[in-house]
Task: structure prediction
Amino acid sequence: MIGLLIAAHGNLGDSLIQSATYVLGARPERLEAIDLMAYADADAMLAAARERIAALDLGNGVLVMTDIYGATPCN
Result:
């Protein structure tokens, strides 16, 4: 199964996961969120995102979804 990572500002990613869990009845496997506002600089954000991607990838890849095109999470 492909991994899913939501890169977003604040707790938006966690809120989307909670909503999906409610609708589906269970938390989807291989789904995580990263709050990019929790990091002091872009290098720390990138390192954290790469670690999450590596953990989620079981050989089928990871789809990274962001909240705003052109904003920090997308860049």
